[in-house]
Amino acid sequence: MSGIINIKERIAKRAAEEIKPGSIVNLGIGIPTLVSKFIKSDDIFLHTENGLLGVRDLTKNDEIDPLIVNAGKLPIGETIGASYFDSAESFSMIRGGHIDAAILGALQVDETGCIANWAIPGQNIIGVGGAMDLMAGAKKIIITTLHTDKENRSKLVKKCTYPITSIRKIDVLITELAVFEFKDGKCYLTELMPETELDEVVKKTEGSFEVSHTMNR
Predict the structure, then answer these.
(1) CA–CA gap between residue 142 and residue 132 (Å, rounded)
(2) Which InterPro entries match (predicted)?
(3) Which of 2, 11, 77, 87 has the smallest set of CB atoms within 10 Å of its CB?
């Protein structure tokens, strides 16, 4: 289990590098919640759609307040000057284009940049939450996920077989193996994660991608 946690934290740490100072950023459920551990700038403001701007990671010395939770019902901390508001105002921020980046999880990402992250046919899972709104309203979409599922099937697929979340395409996909960028309906491998070889990425990826000429090896 600790190995999986370390892999997920590696993904989250890399995702934090995508965030520019001055940004308002929404963190989704799962790996995205770990990103708050790696935010070093005081000029990045984390948002949760249940009504808080100014989320921070809890420390060992913090007392947990059961009323201060994120959208996944996990306890969170609040920064000095944090703002509270109701869900209607929170979603107005999202739909009004005031979220600079959303970091979300995914069940599948297709080679054009469409994602499926809210439903598996025949299974009862948490549902869509604010993902559709964030896909439509956030200025930049960053997906963080393990490269393969529990049955070792690629999550980067030719075409999503699960219900898609939005017709909007994502900007960046980060897995434990690689970083991909999506432009004009195409997928580009831009970076290999540490201790990863290109052959491994090719072997574990169903969807097509091009290797960027600027790829960081």
Answers:
(1) 14
(2) 3-oxoacid_CoA-transf_B, CoA_trans_fam_I, NagB/RpiA_transferase-like
(3) 2
